[in-house]
Structure formats: structure tokens, C-alpha cells
Amino acid sequence: MCGVFGAYSASGAPVLEDVYLGLSALQHRGQLSAGVAWTQGGSVHIKKGLGLVHEALQQNELAEIEAHAAIGHVRYATAGGTERENSQPLGANYAQGPVAIAHNGNLTNATALSSYLANRGAIFQTTCDTETIIQLMAHQPSTVQLEALENALTKITGAYSIAVLFEDCLIAARDPWGFRPLALGRRGDDYFVASESCAFEIIGAEFLRDVEAGEILVIDRRGVISRRLPITAQRLRHCSFEYVYFARPDSVIDGRSVYAARKNLGACLARGGKCPQNSIVAGMPDSGTLAALGLAQEAGVPFEAGVVRNRYVGRTFIQPTQRVREAGVKIKLNPQPGIFDGKEAVIVDDSIVRGTTAGRTVSTIRGAGAKKVHMRIASPPVRYPCYYGIDTPSSEELIAAQSDIEELRVKIGADTLRYISCEELCESIGLPREELCTACFDGGYLDEEESGGRLEV
Amino acid sequence: MCGVFGAYSASGAPVLEDVYLGLSALQHRGQLSAGVAWTQGGSVHIKKGLGLVHEALQQNELAEIEAHAAIGHVRYATAGGTERENSQPLGANYAQGPVAIAHNGNLTNATALSSYLANRGAIFQTTCDTETIIQLMAHQPSTVQLEALENALTKITGAYSIAVLFEDCLIAARDPWGFRPLALGRRGDDYFVASESCAFEIIGAEFLRDVEAGEILVIDRRGVISRRLPITAQRLRHCSFEYVYFARPDSVIDGRSVYAARKNLGACLARGGKCPQNSIVAGMPDSGTLAALGLAQEAGVPFEAGVVRNRYVGRTFIQPTQRVREAGVKIKLNPQPGIFDGKEAVIVDDSIVRGTTAGRTVSTIRGAGAKKVHMRIASPPVRYPCYYGIDTPSSEELIAAQSDIEELRVKIGADTLRYISCEELCESIGLPREELCTACFDGGYLDEEESGGRLEV
Amino acid sequence: MCGVFGAYSASGAPVLEDVYLGLSALQHRGQLSAGVAWTQGGSVHIKKGLGLVHEALQQNELAEIEAHAAIGHVRYATAGGTERENSQPLGANYAQGPVAIAHNGNLTNATALSSYLANRGAIFQTTCDTETIIQLMAHQPSTVQLEALENALTKITGAYSIAVLFEDCLIAARDPWGFRPLALGRRGDDYFVASESCAFEIIGAEFLRDVEAGEILVIDRRGVISRRLPITAQRLRHCSFEYVYFARPDSVIDGRSVYAARKNLGACLARGGKCPQNSIVAGMPDSGTLAALGLAQEAGVPFEAGVVRNRYVGRTFIQPTQRVREAGVKIKLNPQPGIFDGKEAVIVDDSIVRGTTAGRTVSTIRGAGAKKVHMRIASPPVRYPCYYGIDTPSSEELIAAQSDIEELRVKIGADTLRYISCEELCESIGLPREELCTACFDGGYLDEEESGGRLEV
Amino acid sequence: MCGVFGAYSASGAPVLEDVYLGLSALQHRGQLSAGVAWTQGGSVHIKKGLGLVHEALQQNELAEIEAHAAIGHVRYATAGGTERENSQPLGANYAQGPVAIAHNGNLTNATALSSYLANRGAIFQTTCDTETIIQLMAHQPSTVQLEALENALTKITGAYSIAVLFEDCLIAARDPWGFRPLALGRRGDDYFVASESCAFEIIGAEFLRDVEAGEILVIDRRGVISRRLPITAQRLRHCSFEYVYFARPDSVIDGRSVYAARKNLGACLARGGKCPQNSIVAGMPDSGTLAALGLAQEAGVPFEAGVVRNRYVGRTFIQPTQRVREAGVKIKLNPQPGIFDGKEAVIVDDSIVRGTTAGRTVSTIRGAGAKKVHMRIASPPVRYPCYYGIDTPSSEELIAAQSDIEELRVKIGADTLRYISCEELCESIGLPREELCTACFDGGYLDEEESGGRLEV
Ligand SMILES: Nc1ncnc2c1ncn2[C@@H]1O[C@H](COP(=O)(O)OP(=O)(O)O)[C@@H](O)[C@H]1O
Ligand SMILES: Nc1ncnc2c1ncn2[C@@H]1O[C@H](COP(=O)(O)OP(=O)(O)O)[C@@H](O)[C@H]1O
Ligand SMILES: Nc1ncnc2c1ncn2[C@@H]1O[C@H](COP(=O)(O)OP(=O)(O)O)[C@@H](O)[C@H]1O
Ligand SMILES: Nc1ncnc2c1ncn2[C@@H]1O[C@H](COP(=O)(O)OP(=O)(O)O)[C@@H](O)[C@H]1O
Ligand code: SF4
Ligand code: SF4
Ligand code: SF4
Ligand code: SF4
Ligand SMILES: [Mg+2]
Ligand SMILES: [Mg+2]
Ligand SMILES: [Mg+2]
Ligand SMILES: [Mg+2]
């Protein structure tokens, strides 16, 4: 998962500090690296680094750059490895001019395209599928960059929400299925695009609308022009997992509030079965909190902040030494002392991936005095890998792909375990099932036909 | 406010990684600097640095040090300025041997003691009152370090919870009034002291008991011995603000759960006046959340996560440039979109200090569509500065010292504003008023008599 | 000017520390950046950074890498600008496999080649002419890397001494004119190539021979194979300025000792005109020292270390603030107090470029008490820019291109000024004039015919 | 060995950049750490760090500080260990005001003074004898700082050249024997003190005179006042080793040119015995170069730059890994190839300490083709440790203390080995033997009587 941001000021105001702030608001979408790109004197300039936005970039430095158009990117783990050169944005100064791209998503036919290009002399600098888009552009006959980009996009398939920078023009494009979110905002004469609407608040911009699936926005001095890719998808495939886990609760994606979706998922769990008497509801922070609240309110059972997360004890703060491994998950999640004593605990999490966290949580809560521990998961079982930009493990590592629900309950040691169905997921989000991707839950991937014969994976 | 930690392993196991982890769990008590001290080859060694624990110290490096006794410190703002040399622990190798001290609190007669010592040739390296304790020790006739320390402690007055390291011995001491918390823990043969009990969980130790007011624990190869300062306080003065704001909710201080105290404070607010119909309750994250939950549950009104805090947008992440100042408090706290529309909002915070946050919050929530905004504060008005270790502004800057409650309501723009009383505060905590300090609320400071004639301030 | 180094261990021993040491011995050839490349798991790995070798690279880190073939580079100023991405070695993983190149020299037809390549979809990552070689390779039909390299080399003209790394093979090649030096060394089964023979001593290797003009050495598990470029130069053009200024005195280049050449240059100056009575000879450190010694010995006049250079007061040590500019050249060169009093000073420098140093020196020496100051320059006047890899200013800035020798004498304020002729230069080096380049002295550049029609500049 | 520098601008101009430049010129006297101190707002400010001046300090930062009085220090190895807190200047804000000291030398009664002070409550922050002077001042009854300093100086014995800073006054003082050099300079109304006169050139100041043994200079707004310590030395003891090795050749110390002294030492060696026919003279760079030149000129034998030192291959550049140790001294000193072939080599060094360098040199030169290798040492054998501020090894490690000259010749493998006598040393310097210290050569240390009964060592 990644986050992209783009800014264009028609009035010529410098925008790199806005990009910095926007990326900070998208930090939850990627903590591995961060970068920005802008054009100056006819060529692309890029600054990027490893770590969080404030570690990778210098706000001060950016604030002093006089560029009125820029893009930015935060990066999660990717197929491309963690090396510095795979950080984004990627940029190039090729024959037709400067170009930089920030990409959220995953191309499913990148391998085929790469060997096609390599045989034509292309030298790849990265192992990142985003570079494929740039190389495709450079190998187009067209000397007009926008045309070259559109031609390139018709050759690729899979998930992409991209922000592209040309010499004096910002482009935003979303794949025909609309896998990953992409939003358009405005502040006076300045336009912004962002992976999520929550990034507009911080820069004082207003959220205008989602970029549509298959839409290409061309933003320059004259304003915003909307174009369409000459590819029509048979159906939409907005990622349902964004609502479950990835997106920030204060975002609105494709017309639906993430906050509302999560509370609905909890309520749905409540409707799925009564909570025992003398029980309390707690969410796994932070991802399970809102579903827990929704469950508690629907069920009329008290909600407690029963699991504490130490904000300062994360991946970057404490290294996994021997002593730390012994201390186990405790370094991140502690039960609130005294809360669970003699109660039945209803613990809500957004999903179970490998199951390690879930198992430890159950035993920790039991150790804190709970008579019983009931796990409630605010999504269907994750049984299939995602090929559309989210870094899920292979099926072998997905615990729900390896066990049925009763086996899984035994493995994690819970007294009861309950999930919701795909239908309930879609209802909670509030979109028809044929507009949502649920492939990681039900295996319904994009097929040969849907991808216009460019399927590969 | 600061946090202290100490570790002694009778079995001779290295303890510096435990100190690192313990300090991480106390990180909320101070983010300005962090440090550790240990003894080796008869002299004190100290590592300290600015910033968070993981910025100031190297976990790796510490893990390799073979010291079985050590102390550590995290530091908030202090009177001593932000310079590096004021970071703690402070250490010295003086005639009687090595000594290091980590101190949470504030001496009220430090100025008088300093000039007394300077006239006897003392050279102060820092402007930190902790150094006074060390200099006093060096100017005692006694050649036994423990005696010198006890003599020194009888000369000082005010708040101190200290961890002291001698060549092969760890001392923990708490002032006769018990202002700041201090807890004792154990893991097998290893003993630990920490500002808060929440620091034991992370290292797999169990919380044994609070260090008592006026108690001195001497921990060495033979175990733990309890001694008493030859000073008896007329009454206890445990800081009530620890329960309101400073301590972590999963700590238990002087026998009372911080979590329970905060929920009680909210319930107390609920009993103080009905919530309007069609209202929702939200807490200011994170300090107001538990009181909000307590209020919502007692009042039977829905609790919502109505205010979002961007975890990655804090002091260290974003610099207060012009552009950022314009964006104002939004960079930290955003209203959840859609939640407040057409509702009356009951917003709960733990306290109001200068009032800036409160004012902005009210207008933000109103801007998010709330019909009315009702502020509820889970403590009495803060009207007096604290001289016992908490960095509060002077009365001129304390908004509640400058206005009565109705004026304050008008200033922050709320429709209603309600506080609780000092009695309600003590009841919510669960300790008698004469065992709690409430001086910043009611001005009842330690007087000449209580401080045995050593008052100065 | 730059330095290149390559290492191949047939026995499979790790060589990156050797490359580090070799680059250190070539540090005088470039202080702007340093880098190394090696192959591992079928792809190229590169580490590079700005500054001196020990600033840009971590000896420790390199020592731990298990690569038995590697190349390295130190970089002076270049046309490509100082940006990080122009540092070398350059590497790429293209269709036929991994490749990395370290280049000393300057291509004279790079611009023409770049646009040819860009029109075929090539995306340039740097503004460095070395990348042209890699892009040319990628656009060759041949799937054998060595062939692709040889094809590429036949398309370029100008100066290049290169070390190239393929997956398991080290290549060293020198242009058909032999502009820049390149030497081959051996230690047991391990082979090394280096810009100068002085780099072998430090790693305990022995200097075998110069790589010849137009020669390609292929070094792999089976040993060293010598191949020839299918281009025959009409004449050789070994850079004479290497002997005058750039190379280290303990190097031997194309069969001639740099040390001997410099002493001969001084002797030649002595034969050009008697030194006045009561005179002393001093060299401008360090570049003029050996010629001064040669002059003094030939003339029978005492040599003195009359000008002191503060080793710790260089470009990297002291910043050119206002105060420092006032102090002028003094921060680097001071006259030895007492030495010049009442004497005539014969000051020897290797060359005059812009003339600033020369002018300041004369007045400084006069200020130190010299009755007269005689400047002697151990090379002909520099009147033309170099297009073959040495960063000389344009003719406008070359003081000897703007004035005749008498005018120049007046400008720098010397009592007398003497140069040597191009013939004397070649004699002093000990090579025939038609094997040496003297273009920066006499303007005799490579012409259309000599460069096989690929001339551009 | 260390270097001190002080600056006072009566016109109120900022002087910290001057101190930075002055310290750079004294860099040869200490490379372990560097620091500066100034007073501002009534208290001492200090910046110091490890490494060279430009590594330890930021020229930029210093240039912006508005202090018109300041001192600085560069530090070699010392008894105090390499820890950061032993870096100088040392400073303190004690009862009578701010004070900072930079010290070159070594007190011989520091241990006795320390325990005296510790028993009076003094807490030592460092293990550096300079702190003793500050603690002594703090324990004087006098409230006038200058008096307290003078009282303190009468209690100490040994070598000290110090620069002291009070609130608005710079003090320079030299011990009664004048062991270490100290010089006074002026630029307009600004006065400077420096360990060596060479430090004045770089800042455009003129060298006025040496500070005399036992003299105290008080420099403030009114100019320079000279005072005398109430201690008269029986004889002077200027360190002869400064002329031999430590000082920069362009300094003049106690009226004698270091450059002239070194050339005289070489001439003296020449007079001690004829050079063989067909021989060449070379100096060990850089310390043996001038003596070699003197020898060659006196003997009429050609001087050659026969040993090359790689400027970029020093302690800080290359780490002593296994591979590097194998390469041995070669990484620093290489023979000039071709020079020694078939010749007899006369190699001159300033001194032999442990003998390792000497032994390696002989075998290297022989390996470079010399028929015979004659070692000439431009000082008497070093047989005794120095207690006056120079870090020499103990007698066990001093090779000349363990062997007579013939044995030593055999150990280092030279064909002949010759030293000079103490008398010749003094003559070469040009001062009477009873004004020079030669203790490390002849064991004639300061005795009980000379040190006024304060001897300890
Ligand atoms: N693709 C993903 N990448 C990273 N974290 C995820 C992903 N999907 C869900 N998560 C989060 O990780 C948690 C998974 O926990 P779980 O499967 O129990 O343990 P584990 O930590 O072993 O993977 C979920 O609660 C969710 O918050
Ligand atoms: N001594 C203190 N130091 C720092 N923060 C405090 C202190 N006491 C309370 N706080 C926190 O700061 C908040 C005070 O907010 P408020 O007075 O409205 O605005 P301001 O941010 O202007 O001080 C409280 O909600 C509380 O969480
Ligand atoms: N191409 C070059 N780049 C850098 N330095 C050079 C070059 N050629 C010669 N030099 C050195 O620079 C010195 C030139 O000095 P000079 O022309 O008097 O003054 P300036 O410092 O103004 O260029 C020469 O003595 C030589 O040592
Ligand atoms: N006190 C000292 N500290 C450091 N170096 C010194 C000192 N005295 C002399 N030297 C330098 O060190 C060299 C000593 O070399 P030598 O005794 O042969 O070998 P080693 O390097 O084993 O000590 C001398 O030539 C001199 O330049
Ligand atoms: S497979 Fe799952 S995570 Fe991937 S896009 Fe579809 S719903 Fe989202
Ligand atoms: S004054 Fe307030 S903050 Fe200070 S100790 Fe007393 S209750 Fe705590
Ligand atoms: S022009 Fe001058 S510097 Fe350039 S290669 Fe020829 S001789 Fe060397
Ligand atoms: S003992 Fe030697 S080094 Fe020390 S002061 Fe005397 S002459 Fe100098
Ligand atoms: Mg989770
Ligand atoms: Mg708060
Ligand atoms: Mg020069
Ligand atoms: Mg030496």
C-alpha cells in the first residue's frame, strides 16, 4: 500500500510544503520511504529518503523551493524490495521532456512489459513496476507527453492511482476498475490530488470529488480537464479492504465514509449473535476500535478501552533483541489492569492475517482475568493474496486459508470466534457488491476478459 | 514532569536493556531528553541525549554493557532550560565514591541551598536542582554514602521521587509528602523501581507495591531494605493531576487505578447535569477519551470517536512554519466528518490550561456541523502554578485564573462549560482529600510549618 | 580528472577492501566523490557518496562484502555537475545482464550520441558522459556483453581509461590515443587495474605494465586476455600534464617516472638561465617542490622549504567567509619567516592557470624580505582548454592565453618570469613529442581525421 | 601536547572565527579534540567536540557568535583518557563568576591537590589536571577572580601555558620554567595569545613577543598589563623537543626559529661523520625533512624526496583492519621508486621513540634497491619519559632506554646509526643548556628544590 499526493498552483505559489503536509496526512499508507518531485528549469528534481515523511524529507528545505507543481509519495513494503532506488516518485528526463510519477497500486502485467522493453534497449534503474510506465512512455512514437502517457496506460492492466508531473502540468489517473482511491481537492486556484480525502483538511483545501475509475485529470494553468481512458471496465472494483483496515476513518472514499463503514461492520457483528451477560467489549487498537464501538452500541454492552497501545513502543522505537522477543507482543499491546476481572471479553479486530497477534491477544486477555474471550472479526476471513497493491502474505501464510473457522478458533485459543460475510461487508460499506473488489476474501480476481487480454500475474 | 527508572540484578545479569525498555514505557512523562547511568570499575558512566528514548540512546549499545545496576531518566521541560547538560541522570565521582541520581519532582528550597554550597567552593555544572542533592552529599562530613544521602535529603524540601546509584547499590526514595509516584517491581531476583507501575509489564516484571512517602529503599545483593527519612509529614500530598492527565491509564498509583479514576471523573461530570437530547459525546484525544467514555456510559448517550488525532503529525514531525500556523490546530486534531451534523456535541477534555486548544476545538466542532458545543472538563479549573514538578504556566497565562467560568465559556465560544469540584476530584480518585495535593486547583501549597522551616519557593 | 580502480580475485577472495585502499592511493585524482561497484546474485550493487574516500565509503562495511570482483572511482569536478547521481561507478541491470563502469577521461562526441540514443527511447539518469557508454551497450543487437562493449567503444571518441564490471569478469580499456594512464598489477592470482601504478604498493601488489592505448583487457577466472579495439590511432597522445601536475610522483606512466620527469623539468629551467648570486630556490608546495629541487641541484643553488603549506587548512577545513577571504591565500601558503631576508628568491611552480596564486605568492615572498622574486614555471604556458578529461578553465580565464609572457610577468609582479618550451617538456618526460598530447599548451587537438569522423567537441 | 589560543577585541569585534582559524593553525599540536569558550550574559559557553578543528567545531556557527573575548584548545592524547568530558576548554560558573581555562602542559602535583580538594567537598567532573586549577580557584577565600587565579597558580607545579577567560578579561600565563611556548600577537586593538607564533599569520595579526616564564598577562578593555607570579625559578626549562619535533617550522619560540634549529640539527649530523660516496640524503616526511636538507647542504650530497607520504592515508582515513596491518607502514610511507637503486641511502628522522617506524623504514628503503641504509637521528636518544606535557611512552617502551646505540642499530637493521649529543642539540637551537629542558634525553627532571617543595610526580 502506498499514498500519492499532487499539487498544482495556477497562481504560481510554491506547493512543496503542501505536498509535505499532505504526505504527512497520508503517512498511515506507507512508512518505508517518502519522496517528492517537482520540475525546475525544464528538468525533474527529486528528493526522497527512507522512513517516515519527517525522516525522509526536510520540511524547511522543501518550503524554500519555488515550484508551483509537485507530486509526492509514501511507500509501504513493495514487491520491489526496500532499496532506496525503489522509493518513489520516479522521474526521468527523456527525449520529450521531464516526467515524474507517483504510483499507488500494482500492475498485473509488468513482467511481460519489462521484457518487451528490455529487448528494445531499455535499462531499468529499479525493480519497481512504476518504472514500466515511464519506459513505455519513452518508447512511444508520440512526441506529445500526454499522448505518450495515455498510450502507455492502455498497455497496462491492474491497479493504479497515479499522480504524474510534466514540465508544467499535473496529471491524475485511476485505473478503469477504480481499485485504489484517489480524490480531488481545491483551495482557491490551487488544485490537489490525494489518495484519501483526509489529506485536504491539513492544508486547508476542500474535498471536491473522487477521481473516477478510468478518468484522467489534466491540471494546468487553465484549470482541470477531465479525459477518459479508451478502456471500459465491465464492472467497478473498489477495494473493500480500504474501508476495513487501510484508510483513515476520517476519509470518504467513493462516496462512502470509512468511519461509518467501520461502525456498521461492528453493528453487523452484533446482529450476528448476542453478547453474553456480564461482558465488556474492547477493540484491538487502533484498527479494531471503531468496529468494537459499533458492536457495543448495537449490542448495548459497555465499551472499554481494554487494550492499551504504547505509542512510543513501535517498530522504529524498540529493536527485536532476544530480551524483547521474550517480552513478546506486550511491548505494543497491554491489557488494561483490573478491567477484565471476572468478565467475558468480546474483543474486536478488523481482520486476522497470520494469526499471531490474535493468538497472543486471547491469552493476554485471559491472563488479565477474563472468564471467557470472544473474538469478533469485522471482515470475512482473508483467504487469498491481493494482486492489486496490498502487501498480503501468500495463501500458505494466511491462517484462514489453512484452517476452517472452528480450527482457527482452537488455534488462537478463543472461546468463540465470529466473522462477517462478504455480503455483510458490502452492505456495511454501502456499495453494491459488483462495485467492490472482495478478491482477498472470495478469490474473485480480474480475469482474462476483464483485463482485455493483458492479464499476466 | 519526568520519569525515573532503576534496576538491580542480584544475580548479576545485565540490566541496561531493561532500563531502556522501562524508559520507553515512561516516555509519556518526558520527551525532551533521556539518559541512563551505571557504575563500572568504580566510576559512574552516563549516556544521555536529546529527544525520545530511541533518539537519545542506542538500544544495541546499552544491551552490550555488563552492568547489573543502573538508573534511567526521561525529561520533560524543566526550569533548568533545555541544554544538554541539564539532562539526567546526573553523576559524579567524588571523594566517597561514584554516585548518579535520576530525579522526578522539584525542590522548593534549591536556591537557598545553592548559595550556601557555592560559598563553600561548590562548582555547579548544571542549573538543575538535582545537582543540589549531589553537592549536598559531597559536603557532608560522613564518608558513608548512604548516610551522606540521608543527611542531604533532610535538608531539602519539596517534591522528589529519586533513583540513586552507588557503586554497587540502588536507592529509591520518595519525599515525605509523596508528591510524585514511585513503584517497586520484581522479576525473579531482580528488583526495579519506576515512576509508574505500567513500566513493569514491558520487562516482564510484577508490580510489588508503591514506595511510600518518606521511605528509602536500599537495594543490593542482599535484597531490599526499607528505611525511613527522619521527617514526618503532617499529611500526605499525592499529586491529583497525575490521575487527571499525566500518568498512563494502565498504571496504578498509591493503590488507585488511573483508568478507573478517569472514568469516574467522566461519570461525575454526567451526574453534574443532563446531556441534551440528540447529543453525542466525544473526548479530546487522548487525554479526554476515558472521561468522555465514563460520561457517555453514565449518561446513556452515544460515545463517538469524534475528534481524530493524526499520530504522525506532532511536534517532532511538522515544524511551525507560517503555512503550518495558518493551518492551526487542524494539523493535530480533526473532527470526524459527518458525525456531528445536526447533533449537540458534548466534548470532554481533562483540563484547560491556556485555553487555546479548547477555543479552537469548539469552533472546529461547530464548523463540522454541531448545533451546540458543550465543553466538559474532567477536573477543577487550574488556577495556580505547580511548584512540585509539573511545568504549568504562571497564573497570568492560566486562563481559569484570569476569568470566572462564565467568562471562560464566552472566550472559548462554548454553549455551555462545566467543571468538577475538588471534592469530586478526590472522590473520583478514591483517596481522602487530605492525602492528595490539589494546590494547582485551590492554591493550598505546602506551608512553612509543613516544610519544617525549609520553605523557600 | 578522475581515478579508476578494478580488482579481480581468481581465488575468490573478497576484494572490496583492496578497492577502498586503492582508491585512497588515487585520492589526489579526485576529491569530490568516491564509489565502488560489485556484482552479487546476478545484479550490480553500488555504494557511493560525496567527499573523500573515507567520507563517501565505509571501509568496515566494504570489508564484509563477499565479492571477488569490483571496481571503484574517485571523481574531481566534471562537466556533469556535482550532483550525487553523477558520481561513479555507474551501473545498470539491462537485458543482457549487470554492468558497471568507472571512467576517467572525456568523450568528445557524447552530445551527438546522446540525442541518437534518446530518439530510440533511452532514458538518461545522469548528465555524465559515462552513461552514454552503457546506453550504447544496451542498444546493441549483440547479446554478448563483451561484444556489446566493444561495439560501443568503436562509436565513441575522445579520452577514456575505463574499468568495467560484468557478472563475473573485469574489463579494462584505454582509448586508442592513450590519453589517460591505466596500469595493470598483480598479487598472487589476483589482478588489479588502476589509473596510476602508485595504487598497487598500498595493497601489496606488484606493477606489471601499462594497459596499452587501444587495448582491452578481459580478466576473469582464467586469467588476463588482451584484445585490441579495431581502431588504430595515427599517433599516441599520452597526456603530458599528468607528468607536470596531476599524477603522484611515485607513479610510473607509460614507462616514464613522474618523479624523474619533474626533476628534469626543474633542471631544464636551470639550464634556461643562470640564477642570480645570493639566491635561494623554493617550490610552491606541493606541486612545485620537485621541479624546484631539480632546478636547485642543476644550478648549484641552495634549495629551501621556503613556502609552508598548512595541511589542515584546506578547502574542506576552512570556509571562505568574509574574514577568510581577507586573509587570502595565507591560509594555505605561508612564507618561512627569516629565510628570504635579503635574498633573491627563485620560486618554482608547476604551472600558472588563472594566475591568482602566482600573483599572491610573489607579493607574499617580497613581503617576507626577498630583494627580488623570480618565477619559474616547470611547463609551457597553458593557453588552451583541455577536452580530454582535465577540468581547465576556458581560454578567457587562462591568464597565459590573454597576455604574452612579459605582460604576465607584470601582472603577477615578478622581477623575472620564465617558462619552458613544449620540446623541453617532452624531453624532460622522455617520450617523443608525437606520443604526447600537448594540446593545452599548443592547441594541437585531435582532428576530424584522427578521430575517424566522430569528432564533435 | 596541546595547543591554546586566546583572543580579546578591545573594539568589541566578534573573535570566535579568529579563534577557529588560530586553532586550525595549531592543529599539529593536537588532533583528538577541539573546543572554544566565550562568555555571554555573565556565564561561560563552551563548544567542543572530538576530532580535527573542522570536525569538532562549526566555523559558521562560531562566526555568528557576538563575543569579543574567547579562548580555544586543541588536544592531543592525555593522561585523562579520550572521553569527551576531558576535552578543553574547561569552564565553570562558580560563586565569583564565570571562568574557562585552556591548558597546555602537565601539572606534576595534581594528585596531591585533588585529594586535598576532594576532602573539602570538591566534585571533579573530569580526570584532567586542568580542572584542579578551577577547583583551587573556587576554594580560595578571595572574591576577586584574578587574585584567586594567582593564588591557585602558586600552589601548582609543573608545566603550564594557559589561556584563561573571565567575564570580560583574557589572561595568559606561563609557568616559572617556561616549559611550553606561549606567544602574544596584535592586530589593531585586538590582542591574541597562541601556543606558537605561526598562528598569528592566518588571522593577519603580528607576532609581538613570547609570554615570559612566570609572567601573567591581563588583557582587557584597557590593554595588556604584565604581572609576575611570586615564584622565581632557579633556571629556565624551555622544552627542547618543541624545536626537534612538535612545533611548526614557521614558528619562532623564545627567540629561536624552529626552521633554523632543524636545519642546524641536520648540519650538525653532517659534521659528525662524512657521507659515503654515491649516497643520497632523504628525510622521513614530514618530521625529518628539514634536518635532512640541512645535512645534505652541509655535506654537499644530493637531497631527494625519497620517501613519499600519502596525505590521504592517515589514522582517520584508513582503519587498522587485518588487511591493513599486513600492508604495514606502507600505507603511510612509500619509497620513491627508482631513486635508491644502487645508492647508499642516508635517511634522516627527528627522533626514534618505539623504533617500529625506524625498523620498517630501513627494510623498505633496502627493498627499494639501496645498497646500504644509514640512519641519522636529529636529536639525542630519547631515554626518559616526559612529565611536562608531552605524551611519551614509559622507559620500558622507549627503545633507546632498552638498548645501547649499537644494539639499536642492529634491531632496526641499519648499516650505521648516528645521533647527536645534548650539547649539539642546545647549540643547534641556539640557547644555553641551562635555559632548555632536555630531561627526556638526560633524565634531568625538576627536583624538590626547584619546585619549591611541591614536587610529586
Ligand atoms: N495487508 C496487511 N498488512 C499489514 N497489516 C495488516 C494487513 N491486513 C490487516 N492487517 C492488520 O494486521 C492485523 C493482523 O493480525 P494477525 O493476523 O492476528 O497477526 P499478525 O500480526 O501475525 O499478522 C489485523 O488486525 C490488521 O489490523
Ligand atoms: N502541565 C501541563 N503541561 C502540558 N500539557 C498539559 C498540562 N496540563 C494539562 N495539559 C494538557 O494540555 C491541554 C490544555 O489545553 P488548553 O488549555 O485548552 O490549551 P493550550 O494548548 O493552549 O494549553 C489539556 O487538555 C491537557 O491534556
Ligand atoms: N587543471 C587544473 N585544475 C586545478 N589545478 C590546477 C590545474 N592545473 C594546474 N593546477 C594547479 O593550480 C596552480 C595554478 O595556480 P595559478 O594559476 O597561479 O592560480 P589559480 O589558483 O588562480 O588558478 C598550479 O600551480 C597547479 O599546481
Ligand atoms: N612524543 C611523541 N609522540 C608521538 N610521536 C612522536 C613523539 N616523539 C617523536 N615522535 C615522532 O614519531 C617518530 C618515532 O618513530 P619510531 O620511534 O621510529 O617509531 P614508532 O612509530 O614505533 O614510535 C619520530 O620520528 C617522530 O617524528
Ligand atoms: S484483493 Fe482485497 S485488498 Fe486487494 S484490492 Fe481486492 S479487496 Fe482490496
Ligand atoms: S500543584 Fe497540582 S500538579 Fe502540582 S503536585 Fe499539586 S496537584 Fe499535582
Ligand atoms: S590538453 Fe593538456 S591536459 Fe588535456 S590531455 Fe592534452 S596535455 Fe593533457
Ligand atoms: S622532558 Fe623532553 S619533551 Fe618533556 S619538556 Fe623536557 S625536553 Fe620537552
Ligand atoms: Mg490491527
Ligand atoms: Mg489534552
Ligand atoms: Mg600548484
Ligand atoms: Mg617522524
Question: How would you characterize this protein structure?
Answer:
The structure is a homotetramer of 457-residue chains. Chain A has 457 residues and is of the alpha+beta class. Chain A has 2 domains: 232 residues, Glutamine Phosphoribosylpyrophosphate, subunit 1, domain 1 (4-Layer Sandwich); 176 residues, Rossmann fold, CATH 3.40.50. In chain A, 27% of the residues lie in helices and 27% in strands. Chain A is built from 16 helices and 23 strands. In chain A, the strands form 6 sheets. A 7-stranded antiparallel sheet of chain A has the order 3-2-4-1-10-9-11. In chain A, strands 5-6-7-8-12-13 form a 6-stranded antiparallel sheet. A 4-stranded parallel sheet of chain A has the order 17-20-21-22, with helices on both faces. In chain A, β12 and β13 form a beta hairpin. The longest helix of chain A has 14 residues. Chain A is globular. The model of chain A has no long low-confidence stretch (mean pLDDT 92). Chains in contact: A-B, A-C, B-D, C-D. The interface between A and B is large, with 55 and 55 residues. One magnesium ion binds next to loops of chain C.
